[in-house]
């Protein structure tokens, strides 16, 4: 029975028999598995690595323990309806993500709603107020588009606007680089950002992009985000909101591409352990219904594209190999939580815009930071609002019904619409390890592990970006490049 592109052996049990099998396999030569690659983990990094390797002519087998591809950005089945495990926004600057989407047959123009860079709060009589900041639709060069957006903006006074212009000009002059990293809060204080601008713009941007509160977030990583948003050309700063579910946005199309190029995709298959065979091959021990129980198979190369904790466990279990440095960098990553509160209303309930920023105040149980009208993205989800809470450990500790009630009340007050306080049903989804905390001076693991034929891929590997979809895709591309050049 063949479960992968390599040779399959029985579940390990007799060491002498295993060793004899390994020697026969190595002596046999490279004709069977010299271009056979295992990708462990079907998130965005793993799917990208598998696509790039399949495109290069390798025999790829993608293993995913869950039943659905996408990892920490995927579709999930709930007792109410199919929902995403979180709400994401891409940027026009996500060049690798857009390239890979097109490569596997996804049309970004159809799958994504393109909006100009914006930070818009509900501005209604009696509401909490906020700002209305929208980049112009015309393709102006940076920083002219920022100046026009500020000129047209509402809710900011002259001091706020001058503060933003000074900061943007200084950051551009510095090349968006710091000599020494610090927290975002320290950076904003250093450049005299006004309290109102910090509350309405910098703090929500930091939370949305880095999933880390400004007082703990890396200023250097934050500047990299600003470089590709406020400081970028008009098209690069566009916000791209998915119209389709996150698994359909890339992972499922990637699976079809892999299979069409001679590879295979095994969902419901968990790689339990890896073993190096004479430094030339890798043995993977796999369990799950997709492989008929428990099997072992050999590959010439392996991409470990799981979460950092799972990757550390796999690397630590490799006998006879020093993986201590890679494991240390993986377990040093501190997880951050994201919570999404879905509220279903009658189909005729909708917001004026596809999404809004919200004024959050945890002390007053106002948890929501952004709200998305899913019905404006997908007509089948009419009346469904998705409220996002980044760095949500405190909110996630609340009882789900109380959290949903608090969010609904927050919406009713913010929009001055009492009907938003009475949803038909709610669903709270929390990803406890949604991202790593982007803290100052954090040293993230490299794609290379130091072991021949074994590489890492994930949004947590070394990059100037925070843990985003684009980081995951770039990491997958880098991992594939390492194996192609091996």
Structure characterization notes:
There is one protein chain. By secondary structure, the protein is an alpha+beta fold. Helix content is 34%, strand content 22%. The chain contains 16 helices and 21 strands. The protein has helices spanning 15-28, 44-55, 95-103, 108-111, 144-152, 158-173, 184-190, 195-210, 219-227, 246-249, 251-260, 308-316, 324-331, 393-396, 400-415, 469-484; strands at 8-9, 36-40, 59-64, 75-77, 82-84, 90-91, 112-115, 118-120, 132-134, 239-242, 264-267, 270-277, 281-288, 293-299, 301-304, 335-344, 355-357, 370-373, 384-390, 425-436, 454-456. A 5-stranded parallel β-sheet has the order 11-3-2-15-21, covered by helices on one side. The protein has a 5-stranded antiparallel β-sheet with strand order 17-18-19-16-20. Strands 1-14-13-12 form a 4-stranded antiparallel β-sheet. A hairpin with a 4-residue loop joins strand 4 (75-77) and strand 5 (82-84). Helix 2 runs parallel beside helix 16 (469-484) and helix 12 (308-316) packs antiparallel against helix 13. The two termini are 29 Å apart.
